[in-house]
Target: SDR family NAD(P)-dependent oxidoreductase
Amino acid sequence: MPDQKPVFLVLGAGAGIGGHVAKRFAAGGYHAVLARRSDEAGLRRLVDDIRDSGGEASGKLLDASLPDSIEDLVEDVERSIGPIHSALFNLGAQIGNRRLEDTTYKAFELGWRLATFAPFRLASALLPRMAQRGTGSLLVTSATAAVRGNAGQHSHAAAMGGRRMLCQSLNAEFAPKGVHVAHIVIDGPVDAPDTLGKMLGDNFDAYKASKGEDGMIDPAAVAETYWHLAHQPRSAWTHELDIRPYTDTPWWNDN
Amino acid sequence: MPDQKPVFLVLGAGAGIGGHVAKRFAAGGYHAVLARRSDEAGLRRLVDDIRDSGGEASGKLLDASLPDSIEDLVEDVERSIGPIHSALFNLGAQIGNRRLEDTTYKAFELGWRLATFAPFRLASALLPRMAQRGTGSLLVTSATAAVRGNAGQHSHAAAMGGRRMLCQSLNAEFAPKGVHVAHIVIDGPVDAPDTLGKMLGDNFDAYKASKGEDGMIDPAAVAETYWHLAHQPRSAWTHELDIRPYTDTPWWNDN
Amino acid sequence: MPDQKPVFLVLGAGAGIGGHVAKRFAAGGYHAVLARRSDEAGLRRLVDDIRDSGGEASGKLLDASLPDSIEDLVEDVERSIGPIHSALFNLGAQIGNRRLEDTTYKAFELGWRLATFAPFRLASALLPRMAQRGTGSLLVTSATAAVRGNAGQHSHAAAMGGRRMLCQSLNAEFAPKGVHVAHIVIDGPVDAPDTLGKMLGDNFDAYKASKGEDGMIDPAAVAETYWHLAHQPRSAWTHELDIRPYTDTPWWNDN
Amino acid sequence: MPDQKPVFLVLGAGAGIGGHVAKRFAAGGYHAVLARRSDEAGLRRLVDDIRDSGGEASGKLLDASLPDSIEDLVEDVERSIGPIHSALFNLGAQIGNRRLEDTTYKAFELGWRLATFAPFRLASALLPRMAQRGTGSLLVTSATAAVRGNAGQHSHAAAMGGRRMLCQSLNAEFAPKGVHVAHIVIDGPVDAPDTLGKMLGDNFDAYKASKGEDGMIDPAAVAETYWHLAHQPRSAWTHELDIRPYTDTPWWNDN
Model:
């Protein structure tokens, strides 16, 4: 018997925003499907957490850079679990600051492949299904690099700038068909052990302390905003918003 | 005995966004103070509605273009009802499309006085109090004219463009003090009898029908988003977002 | 006998951008009319410089904040010198950084009066004349504060944000009538003794030295860009551009 | 004996903007190197035109989507003709409006390869050389799709949005080293037989007539603006500007 719950799918389900949004949707009555590239044990923990709280969840390891990986996942989930009502694309492509001479073609292409092409592939596989059902939402986590390029951000900014324009293009085609696309600019450091935590390593605790209380974005708080976006009535949809800690300088301000 | 509930103040409390947000905050446990320029009976109805639903509310007629009106209101509310925890500036200054030659100096100045200077006055009276308390939020309803000027919008666009930059400036000073300023771009027609309804008169119903089901922004839906914004934890604040019906073309797209 | 040269009018003709643009237009065959608020000797020097180089110029002291001052100037120039083919609005309203509590209502209103209302008045007096002639251009010097608000910039950002949206609104109405409106974001310090020089006083030389060679915007270079804009063929008009020294960080970047 | 003229290189040298800019730089004293993908006869005509006018020019057929093509061209030109002082990246990736279901992965990737990766490759090959010489400029022709996505523009908008953020990122790294990067948003139809002309075929003349006199962007006019940008003194550089005919509605306006 197929699952009767609406399905929520997240690509990029680490212990930060991805995992917390999955948890929030499961708590709200969705079957959450969590997909990530590696760390089977970490993925298992996230799924078990949700189940232990009485929610429904599935996990899937998947390399989004490989052909057919995203397409097959969408197909599998829709067939074996149920129609995907809401999805979150949560893969980033931050590789730290690198001078142009140190930005290889391979790194530049990989940035595009993960940050621009992968959401296009997810959209291609998923949005026509949602459009046919007349309802659905696609949330896209994005970054400051989507709205301004900075020194050393050649790969990241190009990939994220493409992502943002893609989201506007998808929204223009699919909003009138009842499918809500939202582009969220995360404009500050996220308290996320799987991404920023790994980048900073042993320095993560010191960095966190330096930001002060509530000085890093709490992914659980972000999850509430994502939940809100995905449930705005269709007469009042938001396409783009920014999120940062109260202590952080917005990208447009002097530092 | 002073009121123990947190206080929510709205300037521009008609039967559209202003009234619905007041209702939402009252339902959420705030004492809602509704201020508007005219129509005592309409104001009374809004306040009674809230009270009938078990909420707390007060009403006040007030001409925001007059000296001291906003300042005295803030002072009065803080003294007689309690500290204002959250406020909504909801006055617009749309006067319809007018060619430059038909845009009088008086109309241009009034646009500024209501749409740029009035929120500055509210901020001047209120934000330092909130900063001293280390918490609070100011929501500002804005319009597409804040992000692009159009033919015939000389007065409105200049006033709203000023409003948006003011909000960024206020945010830069007050966010680090724990005060959340949010600027909301309403990029579509609101199903609001007191504003758009009055502008269109007898044509309102026909216009509404032409937009189709959910083709006009439901102010009750907007109220949920405002409530969400005002209650984002300080580690994850949004400064700017847009709202429109799913059927409406965003301002940046071709029509 | 009326002057046969096309007329160029600048409001805000100090020794920085305003004076240099006047000089450039005079060199290019215009009769330059230079208007500024004070410093008759300084104005005289600018006019004499132009005349000594074989150009035509007139000077006028004028307080743009006073009623009818701008309107009368346009009327006078058009009647006594000739049709204004191109104009530059070059008045700023930077008052330095001030906390909200230190930003008086008077300062906020004066910012609007000089930076938003004054260009609206110039446009109202001038653009319909240009539209009737089917040709003309209005250049508007603007500032970073027109595109982002910063802490302490409450008055300046609100005024400049209004200016930018006004320019877009004017462009939308008047471009199809053959009148070119351009909004130029000066995003760096100008080597201008009359404005930045006066603000910094004795520290100006030290500041300039600290910026290094070519580290401050040369107003003569800006004048070439303004000249170029005013003479773009109507099939290829620019509405907005930014200008800064090569050493300066653009406003959208981290510092 | 090596050529003593400064060298100007254009990728995408058709009979529109690319060819006219090459002509303008040759007239201004540069040796112009024109590279394009196909139409050897057309390329020959452009080169001969320049030579017949007394200018210096070379032509090169080159498929920018192939590995090493751009890199080898830069290397060849620098060795056999001289240091490239200024370059224009003028390749577009407009494929017309296509629904998401009709936008193949191949088309999406090709858009990126030509419109985002190719300018990155040019920058990688060229900007470090310019930085070492402490001077140079890279002009990048861009499109409205770089600043907003539209329905059917999934491939184009993603590619151009990436291009714009790349340019900001390059500017942030290279401006302080004396290399000027400019991103020009062409926001209207160009009177270009090789691109728009080919897209419209027999309808080109009717389309052109429908736009009225000066209703299409004259590439010769654009060439003057590009020339101006490439020769702004380094104290007053422009990073981004827009160009459209006076009759055309800017992208941010209602149509």
